Amino acid sequence: MRLHLVDGTFELFRAHYSKRPSHTGPRGDDLKATLGVVHSMLTLLQDTSEQVTHLAVAFDNPIVSFRNDLFAGYKSDEGMEPALRAQFDLVEDAVRSLGITVWSMNEFEADDALATGAARWRDQVDQVRILTPDKDLGQCLVGERVVQVDVIRKKVIDEAALLERRGIKPESIPDWLALTGDDADGIPGLQGFGEKSATGVLAKFVHLEHIPPDAKDWPAGIRGADKLAATLRESRDAARLYRTLATLRTDVPLAESLEDLRYKGTAEVDFDELCRALGAKDDLRQRVPKWT
Asked: Where are the beta strands (DSSP E) in the chain?
């Protein structure tokens, strides 16, 4: 039994900026992104290698959260293409029409919902598979029980793979992002720290507060260690704030039980309404794996 948790916001953006043909709905609006997400979800449900039994998709709606109150530079809807922003509600309705549980996040983020679902149900399933390439989800990995599926590179990242790739364990990911920054989320990081230098100190010291203030106590081979140590001494408060921003919450009040996430199929009447709303072709019906 597997629990698939999908980053719906990532899927929406991926579909919008993909090379898929443009698609205009019956009322003349751009619905390429929503139709692309529908196709992605049907592909997942049809994929016999994924063996989907339980499934939920999380969306940011809107792209603001409690983190925007903590840091003005955190990601938001500002500057988003209107055609993409206009589909936020529609894509949620479309995914629900497929018989899939949707988590629509406002105060929290979609990633917080994914982290909460993984933490809540990981001991009740054979495996939790988090479908997103976002680096911050690496903090959720637990052995081979909770893994991340990079749908772009078609790679499965478990805890061992994360250690091999990043040189750190899951618990250090928020600290690592605090030092290196995360452009996708608007976290600037500390000046001078790159992936190698951040990995060098965190592989040994795990968390920010355990990193010695003097570079002479750091592992050998970290380029510019003296300057980096000085930067960290001067910016520890900022680094702690950035770590807070990068730390995913696992206390999102999700109403569903694990059984509620079991995929039971798509209702024909709901799917027919979806196809009409999207102006989708009739052959889309042939892709539905199960009817309720």
From this structure: 2-7, 54-60, 101-105, 127-131, 146-150, 155-157
Q: Give the strands of the sheet with 101-105, arranged side by side.
A: 101-105, 54-60, 2-7, 127-131, 146-150, 155-157
Same domain, 109 and 143: yes
CATH number at residue 235: 1.10.150.20
* Tens of pLDDT, residues 6-15: 999 999 999 9
Q: How many angstroms separate the CA atoms of 283 and 175, rounded?
A: 48
Helix intervals (H) in 150-267: 159-166, 173-180, 195-205, 225-234, 236-246
List, for residues 234-278, the tens digit of each pLDDT value: 999 999 999 999 999 999 999 999 999 999 999 999 999 999 999
Same domain, 183 and 256: no
